[in-house]
Design brief:
By secondary structure, the protein is of the alpha/beta class. It has 10 helices and 19 strands. 46% of the residues are buried. The N terminus is likely disordered. Bound molecules: aspartic acid.
Length: 358
């Protein structure tokens, strides 16, 4: 295990007679925060205090262990190093548990869940992210429901003993969403996450109803962790008034290997020569250019309008209906595997783990 993890604290439950086992990994976020009486700001507290607030966790017929990252972080401070630590921890404990729950701040949860989906190749067990909009110690908290349901989903098995949800997913406000299809949608509502291009994998009501038609089947083989990430990616959101200097820097700077173009509608951008010349320059420099729509739902279709078709002829790849969060994780992971940009481009067009509608 990496040295960054060695500082983490661990607590193992005594319930060895349970039929399922889940490791709850606590990274930080609102779910585990408490008001500091000194200055009134929210500060993270220990996982044992979460268990005190949610005694229902002790009633589960699940062997529940916890692993607490140190220091706990507000997810605005998440860096890819945390994803590597999470992936390595899951890999190391993979045979010991039926599923994993990751308690994580909501701000970057969709980024982390997306990245993990690409980093954990051959996953056959649930990795369920959850968190909350209100701290768990607050009377109206959404954290209890989210945590309890996430544990239930992470431990759920089919009749043949295999995992009900062998995917990286986010459970929030009664819905289970595929991690790499999710995006944080509301800064306030309990229903904070959306999966605009894929229905929920499950819906929690009186029962948890699984949408087995879209839950992915494991491909078989052993879990392989891709822990080398190449983060030389820029994101250029196309907007009226964008200047050539800004566009050129995001697309052509030597420190950038790939650029996610957040385009209008079905993949359209500026059709003026100055902009297309910068795109061509980036393509000639060998940059990887990925077209993702800035719309909240729907797909890129570069054959629909002339402006989209021009981008395609300049070497821009269609991201189809991928989210920006998933595009980032996919690029980091693929680029970390090789220096061959042509291979990365070819893989971007493929659905690797349910991130695009094939
Ligand atoms: N800033 C917090 C975080 O992302 C917000 C949250 O947990 O909802 O860690």
């Amino acid at each position: 295990m990496s040295s960054r993890l060695s500082k983490a604290k661990e607590r193992i439950s005594n319930n060895n007679d349970m039929s399922s086992s889940v490791l709850v990994i606590y990274t930080g976020g609102t779910i585990g925060m408490k008001e500091d009486p000194q200055d009134g700001t929210l500060k993270p507290f220990d996982f044992s205090q979460i268990k005190e607030e949610v005694p229902e966790l002790n009633k589960f017929k699940v062997k529940l262990d916890s692993y607490t990252f140190s220091p706990l972080i507000d997810s605005s401070d998440v860096e890819p190093a945390l994803w590597v630590n999470l992936a390595e921890l899951i890999h190391e404990r993979y045979e010991d548990y039926d599923g994993f729950v990751i308690l994580h701040g909501t701000d970057t949860m969709a980024y982390s869940a997306s990245a993990l989906s690409f980093m954990l190749e051959g996953l056959s067990k649930p990795v369920i992210f959850t968190g909350s909009q209100l701290p768990i110690g607050v009377p109206r908290t959404d954290g209890k429901e989210n945590l309890i349901a996430a544990v239930e989903i992470a431990s759920a098995k089919k009749a043949d003993g295999s995992a009900q949800v062998p995917e990286v997913a986010i459970f929030f406000d009664s819905r289970l969403l595929r991690g790499n299809r999710s995006t944080k949608y509301s800064a306030e509502a309990f229903n904070a996450f959306a999966s605009p291009n894929l229905p929920p994998l499950a819906q929690a009501g009186i029962n948890i109803r699984y949408n087995n038609d879209i839950i992915r089947k494991p491909k078989g083989g052993v879990l392989k962790v891709h822990s080398h990430l190449d983060c030389r990616v820029s994101i250029l959101k196309i907007h009226p008034g964008i200047t050539p200097a800004v566009a050129r820097h995001s697309l052509c700077a030597p420190e950038i290997r790939a650029c996610i173009l957040e385009t209008y509608g079905s993949g359209n951008a500026i059709s003026k020569d100055w902009f297309l010349n910068i795109i061509k320059e980036a393509d000639h420099l060998g940059k990887i250019l990925l077209n993702v729509t800035q719309c909240k739902s729907g797909t890129v279709n570069m054959n629909l309008y002339a402006t989209g078709a021009t981008l395609k002829s300049c070497g821009v790849i269609s991201g189809e209906d991928i989210t920006t969060e998933a595009a980032l994780g996919k690029l980091f992971c693929l680029m970390g595997l090789t220096d061959n940009n042509e291979w990365v481009k070819a893989m971007l067009e493929k659905d690797l783990c349910g991130e695009i509608t094939a």
